Amino acid sequence: MTTAILSALAEEQQGLLDLLRRPQRVTRAGREFWHGELHGQPVVLALSRIGKVAAATTTTTLIEAFGAQRLVFTGVAGGVGPGVQVGDVVVATEFVQHDMDASPLFPRYQIPLYDRERFACDAPLSAMLLGASRAGLSRLNGQFDSKSVLGERSVHQGLIASGDRFVSAAAEARALHAALSDAGHPPLAVEMEGAAVAQVCHDYGIPFAAVRTISDRADDTAHVDFPQFVRDVASRYALAIIDEFVRGLSTSGRR
Ligand code: SAH
Questions:
Q1: How would residue 148 be classed by pLDDT, with cut points 50, 70 and 90?
Q2: What is the pLDDT of residue 222?
Q3: pLDDT at residue 114 in the model
Q4: What was the pLDDT predicted at 140?
Q5: 28 assigned to some structural domain
Q6: Which residues lie with the beta carbon below 6 Å from any ligand 1 atom?
């Protein structure tokens, strides 16, 4: 059973590429895909690229051209929920598109013709990813001195909002959180791809799980925090979490 591992950023994929056995590079849809094995599991690695449409194309290609039968996503996100801090990790339960608005034809946030606002992640796969996230973070504990910068790290589980916008103003983050909360969709984090990947996986009936490391608070310093955080912290988190996750697939016999 081929597992697709989607990374949002090249820094997050590099560690996985280094571990990939029997790597084979294939170009499709103007993108690079890497076939191979991780801990004996057949995998295909890809960069999602940025934004909903780009991520949807990558996901469709993974399923149609590479036969991916389950999909796991790692990336970074802005924390918008109360208590969701830089350095925390959010495992998604569901996704909503914060920029979807076909009102008054359809209710705000509803995806036209799907009759729903949210797409759910696969519960068993997400439970495995949650376990892998906890194990990965505790493995990293002590490996590098992040505590002074990041304080205590928490692993959250909940709704993530996606949209084609890098949210980098405190007022905007507050407004986005308030509007979604008023509509019954209070998000923990905001990013730019997850809801698109979730929708494509829903269309194909493919199990999907996603984890995001919080790189910023989607506020006025988001763009400052971001590059350094990805380089120094998120790339190591992504590698440790996916390494634990794939080991888990092997030992649980979920081939
Ligand atoms: N500097 C990067 C571009 C990053 S775009 C480059 O040059 O390649 C931001 C990425 O991080 C997207 O993948 C998005 O999903 C996520 N993200 C992190 N913080 C975010 C925020 N505050 N708002 C929206 N997306 C965010």
A1: very low
A2: 80
A3: 97
A4: 86
A5: no
A6: 8-9, 50, 75-78, 166-168, 190-193, 215-216, 218, 222, 227
For residues 243 and 255, what is the distance between their CA atoms, to the nearest angstrom? 15
User: Rounded to the nearest whole angstrom, what is the distance from the C-alpha of residue 11 to the centroid of ligand 1?
Assistant: 13
pLDDT in tens, 45-101: 999 999 999 999 999 999 999 999 999 999 999 999 999 999 999 999 999 999 999
Q: In this structure, which amino acid lies at residue 46?
A: A
Residue 204 covered by a domain: yes
* Residue numbers annotated as active site: 12, 216
Identify whether 81 is part of a domain. yes
Contacts of 121 (CB under 8 A, 6+ apart): 92, 93, 94, 95, 198, 208, 209, 210
Instruction: Provide the domain limits for residue 221.
Output: 75-252
Domain count, the chain: 1
Q: Looking at the predicted structure, is the pLDDT value of residue 147 above 60?
A: no
pLDDT in tens, 154-198: 999 999 999 999 999 999 999 999 999 999 999 999 999 999 999
Partners of residue 65 on adjacent β-strands: none
Q: Ligand 1 atom closest to Cα of 50?
A: 13
Q: Provide the CATH number for the domain around residue 226.
A: 3.40.50.1580
Q: Is residue 22 part of a domain?
A: no
CA 98 to centroid of chain Cα atoms: 16
Indicate the top mutation candidate among 7, 96, 176, 192 to test ligand 1's pocket, ranked by most ligand atoms within 8 A of CB.
Answer: 192
CB 70 within 8 A of CB 208: yes
224: tokens are 């400052």
